[in-house]
Task: structure prediction
Amino acid sequence: MNGRSPLFRLIALYCALLLLLGAAFAYFTMHSFAHYVRETTLRGVRARSIEIWHTARTSLTDGASLANLMELRFAPEAQYRYIRIAQGKSVFYESGIPPGTNLKQLRALGATVNSGELQFGSLVVVRRNFGARGRTITIDSGQSEEFAGGVEHDLLRSILFGLPVLLVLAALGGYVLMRRSLKPVEMMIDAAEAITFNDPGNRLPLAGTGDRIEILALALNRMLDRLDNAYQYANRFSADAAHELRTPLAIIRGELEFIAGQEIPESLREALRNTLSEVARLTELVEHLSLLSGAQILWGKHAHTNFDLFELAAETMEQMRLLADEKGLILEPISGSTAVVNGDRNRLKQVVVNLLDNAIKYTDPGGRIVVQVTADAHRARLILSDTGIGIAAEHHEDIFRRFFRVSTNRGETGSGLGLAIARSICSVHGGTIAVESDPRRGSTFRVELPLGSPQYARARKRKNTLV
Ligand code: ADP
Result:
């Protein structure tokens, strides 16, 4: 479990509190129990000294019957009791000494006649003097605390054993309860991870508990609505602007091409060529803009089919091989295996084209481009590596932003929209695109897409094994 997570901290706090309360409870229980035992012992011992006197007063002179009476009536040894009946130094009866008694103290005080409550080690003694026919009889009635001490010991042991067990059970119970109460948050996290602006219907689930978590989900959903509106507005604006620009650009291009077909001086022809190439660049930019605005990305799921990403990549590489050859680059044969995905083949082809185009553009002659397509249980993967100029770590995320270009001072042309478009297309397909790059060693782009329908994949496999 993560030590910094609120769940862990809450449980740790709750256990610490429980431990503190448990320790306080154990202390007060033991203290009250010891007090109760002492009071009860003293009360019993006091009452017994009177009882001893009444039992013994008529048999004081007959030692054997006195001893017999005491044994029968009070069973001092078995009950950890102490009885001594004396007149001054002459002792009529004395029981055995219970364990835990401080014998030295007991003997030292044996001859005194002071009454009161005395303690000899663990032996509590109540000494009382009774008068009979002018004589003072001293009766010691004692009880060893060892007897109750055993019970106290058992109680302490139960508390010391029970408290950690209680703590562990409380921690486990607390963990289960908190996990359960945080379930709606987990669901919100999963839903939030899956939300894209291309599927405005997706919102955070409501737990229906009416608590603060549900209020948070409602507030986040309202915020998503507002963000969604802003996103749609920006997209519509780009789509409209691109649409409005397309026609005049086509006209300008047509007119320029018409002029180029006429007899014109060579100096004008050079300027015309430059203008035409700028118009071509502008037209490409407008096309990209219109694509990015979502007008074409959101073409709808009807364009989705199951197809093999491996085949698509292989076909695109063959079409672009000439470009790589012209620049003196080595485009290695594709490796990997069939990976069936579901999506718009043309759009996903555009992702491969953009990545290959960049790899060719940003790799020096003699460099190498390697493409691999693989699939695991859930995802198809396209990995494209080059030995080009690479991208500094601080730009790894920036390059997927619209219009971002790393300045290379090498004269490569581009709009800075290719990777932004690639990311939009991947995200519409529920996939991802990421880069690993080192300015000294080149770049690796990794595209991941969910696998397409299994029936198609099985059919493809059968076909491949038949061939
Ligand atoms: P552009 O039209 O400029 O190529 P992209 O969006 O395709 O736009 O790429 C954004 C920037 O990322 C590029 O300007 C370039 O600096 C960098 N880049 C993309 N691919 C590579 C690559 N394979 N090697 C090095 N840099 C790259």
User: Anything to note?
Assistant: The domain at 212-296 is CATH 1.10.287.130 (Helix Hairpins). Residues 437 and 443 are 4 Å apart (CA to CA). The chain has three domains: 6-150, 212-296, 305-466.
